[in-house]
Amino acid sequence: MIEGVPLWAVVIDYILGVVMWTLVGRFGMSLFLPENSNFFFMRFFVQSTDPLIRLFKPITPGFLIAPIVPLYVAWFFYMTRFYLMPWLLGYSVMGMLSFPLEGEIAQGIASLARLLGN
Fold first, then answer.
1. What angle do CA 43, 47, 51 make, to 5 degrees?
2. Whether the Cβ atoms of residue 18 and residue 104 lie closer than 8 Å to each other
3. Residue 47 to residues 2, 30, 53, 85, 117, Cα–Cα distance (Å)
4. What confidence tens digit (pLDDT) does each residue in 33-76 have?
5. Nearest to 44 by CA among 72, 25, 31, 60
6. What value, to the nearest 5°, has the Cα angle with vertex 38 and ends 35 and 25?
7. Which one, of 70, 101, 69, lies nearest residue 85 by Cα?
8. Greater confidence, 95 or 15?
9. Is the pTM of this model over 0.90?
């Protein structure tokens, strides 16, 4: 899946992907728990994403409710991964599951499904 893609691009995509999914995770957890919860996953999501949310505050619309802000910031990371990274690599289009991080996860899930199916 990642053959022919420079290592620097894969590393950058993995970092951007982890940040993006952490922001999405914070949004998901905020549906069930308050931000000041003592649950360790929620504390991790809040502590690891608060600096990014503060960084993006100048361009975050004021009408967004607080639980949606992590999704708004995650959207920037998604757009960077979907449009900027292919452009930097010289690709005109990237298809579904073209992100190395998600592609590796999808291959792992498919391998696990094959193992469980036998």
1. 160
2. no
3. 31, 13, 10, 27, 39
4. 998 999 999 999 999 999 999 999 999 999 999 999 999 999 99
5. 25
6. 50
7. 101
8. 15
9. no
